[in-house]
């Protein structure tokens, strides 16, 4: 697998991804609650097509939904299944590309694509392909939930980095060791794409072990993404902000036309 691929990035991060949170279990519950409120029905058949290690998928399963998770990273998807099983939850997972979802038409009530996953697709062609697949596997009037970073603001500001996040390692014997995470962003000349370097500093034998993982994103604006969703057959696309939903990123909410 090429070291620059998105799958490689998340395969490498899968074992330590929870350490970017101050309390991953609390984030799982909080994000699941916020998405559940938007779904608005009991025991929905949900596809999380960028499930990672299960942050949103497990949160929704805790709320009683029937969740399937897929991710481009086999290691991340496998960990999501293990984490769900450890909590006594049923979560079927598989490694899959969101541009080629391995499901029949009309199988799900809701498709979730959260945590800035869609912007790993770097062209309109790829985003259209992914949205068309999400549309295909949804039932009539099915719900789409896509979250991204607030790119309209970020494109204007063009930040070079994120502030360091320092968290205690929850399973450390004395609770005293910490991890440090931050990102460097290298913007392309087009002003829309950027290369990201994800730095994770972990304590190891009294020293620091430094892991650096690299990937690329497209800072896809909200109007552009809403327009692509409409082209894919979704109706009434609207952006819901974190202060309204309680979710940590802006959410594009749309439905399949009946």
From TrEMBL:
A Pfam family reported for this protein in Swiss-Prot or TrEMBL: Methyltransf_25
Documented EC number(s): 2.1.1.-
Keyword terms, alphabetized: Methyltransferase, Transferase
CDD domains on file: AdoMet_MTases (cd02440)
A GO BP annotation: methylation
UniProt keyword Acyltransferase present: no
Residues annotated as domain Methyltransferase: 46-142
InterPro entries referenced in this protein's UniProt entry, alphabetically: Methyltransf_25, SAM-dependent_MTases_sf
Gene Ontology terms, MF aspect: methyltransferase activity
EC category: transferase
Protein name listed in UniProt: Class I SAM-dependent methyltransferase
Species per Swiss-Prot/TrEMBL record: Streptomyces laculatispora
């Amino acid at each position: 697998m090429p070291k620059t691929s998105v799958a490689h990035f998340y395969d490498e991060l899968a074992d330590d991804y929870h350490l970017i949170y101050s309390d991953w279990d609390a984030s799982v519950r909080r994000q699941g609650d916020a998405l559940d409120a938007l779904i608005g029905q009991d025991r929905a058949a949900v596809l999380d097509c960028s499930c990672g290690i299960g942050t949103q998928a497990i949160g929704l399963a805790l709320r009683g939904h029937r969740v399937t998770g897929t991710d481009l990273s086999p290691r991340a998807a496998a960990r999501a299944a293990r984490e769900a099983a450890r909590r006594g939850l049923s979560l079927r997972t598989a490694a899959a590309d969101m541009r080629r979802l391995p499901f029949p038409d009309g199988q799900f009530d809701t498709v979730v694509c959260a945590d800035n996953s869609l912007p790993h697709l770097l062209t309109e062609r790829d985003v259209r392909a992914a949205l068309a697949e999400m549309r295909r596997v949804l039932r009539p009037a099915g719900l789409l939930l896509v979250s991204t970073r607030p790119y309209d603001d970020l494109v204007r500001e063009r930040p070079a980095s994120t502030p360091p996040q320092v968290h205690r390692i929850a399973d450390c014997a004395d609770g005293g060791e910490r991890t440090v995470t931050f990102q460097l962003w290298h913007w392309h000349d087009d002003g829309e794409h950027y290369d990201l370097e994800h730095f994770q500093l972990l304590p190891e034998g009294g020293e620091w072990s430094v892991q650096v993982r690299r990937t690329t994103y497209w800072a896809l604006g909200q109007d552009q993404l809403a327009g692509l969703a409409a082209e894919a057959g979704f109706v009434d696309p609207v952006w819901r902000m974190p202060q309204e939903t309680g979710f940590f990123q802006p959410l594009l909410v749309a439905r399949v036309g009946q």
